[in-house]
Amino acid sequence: MDFDFSKYFNIANLDKIIRIAILILISVIVIQGVAYLVKRSITYRLSKQSRMIINRIIVYTGYTLLSFMVLKELNFDITALFGAAGVVGIIIGVASQTSIGNIISGFFLVSEKSFELGDVVRIGDKAGTVYSIDLLSIKIRTYDNLLLRIPNQTVISSELINVTRFPIRRMDINVGVAYKEDLRKVFEVLKEVARKNPLCLEEPEPLILLQGYGASSIDILFAVWFEKNNFRDVKNSVIIDIKEAFDREGIEIPFPHVSLYTGEATKNFPVELVQKKETVGKKSS
Q1: Which CATH class is domain 168-249?
Q2: The Mechanosensitive ion channel MscS domain covers which part of the protein (predicted)?
Q3: Cβ 169 vs Cβ 228: under 8 Å
Q4: pLDDT, tens digit, for every residue of 85-99?
Q5: Domain boundaries in the chain?
Q6: Which of 26, 52, 57, 267 is the most buried (most CB within 10 A)?
Q7: Are 55 and 39 in contact (CB under 8 A)?
Q8: In the prediction, which pLDDT does 218 show?
Q9: CA gap 28, 25 in Å, rounded
């Protein structure tokens, strides 16, 4: 039995297919072109995060309109489609309240501008570099190179610290010195450490603050300012410089000691270690 192709592939259908193909091709070129031009025009005005969101809105909106145009060319009833989409939307909305909450929280995060792509943040007990900001979550690359996904609702309801928001930071180092030391001399030595370290900033000037009497030392807070990208080098070099300067000046960094007393407050209990030699004799038969 012969199959009549002309019944299904007539000139009208062929013309419709060509129109739809041309429509799709032109629309894709226009959508990608507009997204590219907008991205280039706002490069220096907005943050990476805002540029990414605007680009996605343009692309998603364009392809949605293109889908409706193609359906119209195929003689689908778009009004009925909208009605069906409304019913489906209600069902999906009831079943995905958490997702909707994350989307709304994402808009709050974008409007607040608390962080951007590439910032180092701490959220609760998690920390890392912001890798991606999406509709439902943000993704963080941790210090040990793991990808951590945090829902937007969790981010918006948690305490967030942006470590690299400002160009300079302050590093706090706790230092303990023995009670016998001259504290004015200790202050001068610490100031000299900050002056000689090329990574420590002169302005704002270093902070030296007596914190109180510790169990075995006088506790001092030594804080220096530095550029945010030099964190590791500053911490290592300053601690080494303090140790070398204290050794050079004869300043003692104490550690806890354990003492035994006989009952008098000022006299130590004498302890003498005696090594006993054992002799092994032969038994006589």
Answers
A1: alpha beta
A2: 99-165
A3: yes
A4: 565 566 555 545 666
A5: 10-95, 112-162, 168-249
A6: 52
A7: yes
A8: 92
A9: 5
